[in-house]
Amino acid sequence: MLQHRSQQTQSELTEATSLSARTIREALGQLVETGRVVEERCVRDARKRVYSLAEE
């Protein structure tokens, strides 16, 4: 999903994939930990985080 749209929130990913919020949260945590995905604060809402693919 992140390849199609550069930045997405956890809730956007949950809605787009129909996976549970817990599954998305765990997957994002692993991807951030391994450096494949970057987590940043959302410009529109500082309470949220946006996720994007890490530069290779």
In words, what does this structure look like?
The radius of gyration is 11 Å and the shape is globular. The mean pLDDT is 92. Strand 2 and strand 3 (49-53) form a beta hairpin. With 56 residues, it is α+β, with helices and mostly antiparallel strands. It has a three-stranded antiparallel β-sheet with strand order 1-3-2. Helix 1 (10-17) packs across helix 2 (21-33). Helix content is 38%, strand content 21%.
The succession of helices and strands, N to C, reads EHHEE
Report the total helices.
2
Query: Which stretches of 5+ consecutive residues score pLDDT under 50?
Result: none
Assign an overall shape.
globular
Q: What is the residue-averaged pLDDT? A: 92
Q: What is the strand content?
A: 15-25%
Helix content class: 25-40%
Largest sheet: 3 strands, antiparallel
Number of DSSP E strands: 3
Rg is 11 Å
Q: How far from one another are the termini?
A: 17 Å
| Physical arrangement of strands within the biggest beta sheet | 1-3-2
Features:
single chain; 56 residues; alpha+beta; 3-stranded antiparallel beta sheet
